[in-house]
Structures are given as C-alpha cells and as structure tokens.
Amino acid sequence: MAIIRAEALSKTYRVADKQPGLAGTLRHFVQRRHRDVAAVKAVSFTIEAGEMVGFLGPNGAGKTTTLKMLSGLIHPSGGSAEVAGYLPQRRQADFLRQITLVMGQKQQLIWDLPPLDSLRVNAAV
To answer: Residue 68 CA to chain centroid, in angstroms?
Structure first.
C-alpha cells in the first residue's frame, strides 16, 4: 500500500525580473516584468508503507519545495500528491495530526555517525 504518491508533481514560481541599477528600479516601477522559475518539474514517485527513504540532491534541485508540497505547506502548480490517503493541500485536521515534517541541513549531521543516529541525537536534544 502506497503511503505517499506523487504524480507529475510540479511547482513554478512567478518572480519579478528587475534590471540592475537605478534605471532598472525606476523601470520596474513603471513596467514590471516577470518570469517563471520551475522549482519542481514533473516529479513522480511512490513510497510504500514501511519503506525508509532519503531525499538527496544538489542545491536548487527542488527537495524542500517537494517536501513542502507533500506536507501541504504550499500548493503544487501541476500534478498531484497523496499522503496517507489525504490530499496535502487541503490541510485537513486528521491529516495534520498524522504527519511530521523535519527538514534539516547537512550541518546537522554528525560526520562520524550514521545519518539515522545523527537524527536520533538531534531528536533527543
């Protein structure tokens, strides 16, 4: 049974595109330009009950954005996600009682311990 399912999950942000300098700032007030930035592009995966997985990738790969979509903190621009039988973006009370999201940085890992032991140490702290 799949506990987490993501199908073509995508997130695109619309950001202001301002030219540098005073002239760019003034132009930005009069004629604002935007561009779309794809943070997550059509990610699909399934995690079965009892599986333990890691989510690794370089900076800017969309790891945090994907986790935020799976927890319902942000809405996907495209695709769908289901977690424990719920649609995360609905933020239903029953769903929120069942999930936990911990996001850390590599600096939180203790270099001479396995990652799971590092997480246990941080949890105890």
So the answer is: 4
Instruction: Transcribe 39-101 into DSSP letters.
Output: EEEEEEEEEETT--------TTSSHHHHHHHHHTSS--SEEEEEETTB-GGG--HHHHHH---
CATH of the domain at 50: 3.40.50.300
Cα separation of 41 and 44, whole Å? 9
Q: Which two tokens stand for residue 71?
A: 């927890």
Residue 84: name the closest of 74, 97, 75, 73 by CA: 97
Q: How many domains does the chain have?
A: 1
Range of the structural domain that residue 23 is part of: 2-100
Q: Establish if 72 belongs to a structural domain.
A: yes
- pLDDT (tens digit, 0 to 9) for every residue of the chain, 125 residues total? 789 999 999 999 998 887 888 887 888 888 888 899 999 999 999 999 999 898 888 888 999 999 999 999 999 999 999 999 999 998 888 888 888 776 766 566 777 888 888 888 878 87
In a domain, 113, yes or no: no
Cross-strand bridge partners of residue 6: 45, 81
